[in-house]
Amino acid sequence: MALYCCAPGPAGAQEFLRRVRVPVIRGGGDTSTAEIQLDLGARFDPGKPTVIVVEDGQQFYVHPGSMKALQADLFGPGVNVVGIIPRGVTAAFLDAAIEPWGQTNWRRAWAIFNSEEWIADIEAVRQSLVGARGQVDLYGRSGGAYLVHQYLAEHPTAVRRAFTQSAVDPALNRELHIPLDDYFTNIVVSDSGLGAMLLASLPKSGESRLRALLTLQRQHFYVPADSLHRAQRELVAALATADSAALGRFERDYEVGQILTLERSREGIPQNVRVLELLYPSGAFGSRRPGNLYPLLESQAVFIAPLLDLVASGAIAVPVRDARQAHRVTADVFVLAAYNDEAVDYRTSIALANQYQSHVLFIANDNHVFAAMDRAGVRAPLVRKFLDGGPNSAAFREARARAAPMEWGADRTPAG
User: Fold this and answer.
1) Residue 415 lies inside a defined structural domain of this protein
2) Do 196 and 167 share a structural domain?
């Protein structure tokens, strides 16, 4: 599962900022409101199509000034690029989730930061930009891509085109019996001795175990697929020998300290609400087997424990995307997946794409962040040309042809 994909970004230029006022909590008698900011890549032109960049509660790449660079690098000058600086990093919403004495009110935090509120914020932004009947394009990746698909389920005619990459969908993991955390299973399959060494050397409890679990879980975000097994052996060896210097290097390389700091900050509140939504519908918490190791699930269970308690007591219910609504979506939908994505299984992307009437599915021989596609310079043209002209345009077909060598299976020699 894709967690902590990006560290919080610095405040940037505020040349093109707009504001939209929305309720802090919709329904339930709470009438308080607050502003969310919109970061624009350039001055808004009503004559151009508008792309809304969507991030969710566990992402931090949309901040003042960020859309100017994203417009130049990814979307080009032919569209308005609007990034929603979300409620998850906005002080008024964070303040509302914290009691006067400083303790997080997790039930209220859930009401403020669950995906229904984020979906309604996107809708408020759409209407503020193009009116009640106007259409926009949407772009999202990882958890933000899931939020795009959640929005499409509730507003099936409000979007012209949607481009999503590494789209999480935990309900599909459950439906297809695809585990979210198969780290240990993969280790044992490739090297049973390494698995036994890991179980024997992992700290039994406390902060040291949590740090080790995070280091194990985050490694695949930083190491190419063809080097991952070697890096895993080196990390397990460091744990087995209690090599503090080596473990410290791994933690620094994988930004474990920054993650722990985030989790213990106010910004960790919406992060953990979203993590519950990304993990719980898969059924993974209830399917863990004794004698196995689940670095993702165990570490996240520590952080979201108050929310899991609320679910267990029946105080809150975790929503899932209503897949039945996909046939009503009028948008062209692009689903970009990666065969070597350790966070999002490509098989769920196949199922997701095929729920839509008009869709493009591209499975790249790449990883979660599509580093190889970007090195080859083929991802950005796919995004730009799909949003510019749609899946049937000559420009998009040309961009797809350029990207074809990166498609999973493209290097296979046909049988016979």
Assistant:
1) no
2) no
CA 230 vs CA 186, 211, 319, 321, 410: distances in Å: 13, 20, 39, 38, 26
The predicted structure's pLDDT at residue 227: 86
Domain count, the chain: 2
Distance CA 391, CA 401 (A): 12
Q: What is the C-alpha separation between 259 and 255, in angstroms, rounded?
A: 6
Burial 87-110 (b: 16+ CB within 10 A, else e): bbbbeebbebbeeeeeebebebbb
In single-letter form, the type of residue at position 208 comes to: S
CB contact burial 147-177 (16+ within 10 A = b; e otherwise): bbbbbbbbbbebbbbbbbbbbbbbbbbbeee
In whole angstroms, give the CA distance from residue 325 to residue 156: 7
Q: How confident is the model at residue 15 (pLDDT cuts 50, 70, 90)?
A: low
- The answer to whether position 57 is within a domain reads yes
Evaluate whether 258 touches 149 at the Cβ level (below 8 Å).
no
Choosing from 313, 330, 361, the residue where a domain stops is 313
Range of the domain at 260: 181-313
Q: What is the largest CA-CA distance in the chain?
A: 72
Q: Is 54:144 a contact under the CB 8 Å cutoff? A: yes
Residues 22 and 167 in one domain: yes
pLDDT score, position 4: 44
Q: Read off the pLDDT of residues 70-118 as tens digits, 9 standing for 90 and up.
A: 999 999 999 999 999 999 999 999 999 999 999 999 999 999 999 999 9
Is 0.70 surpassed by the pTM of this model? yes
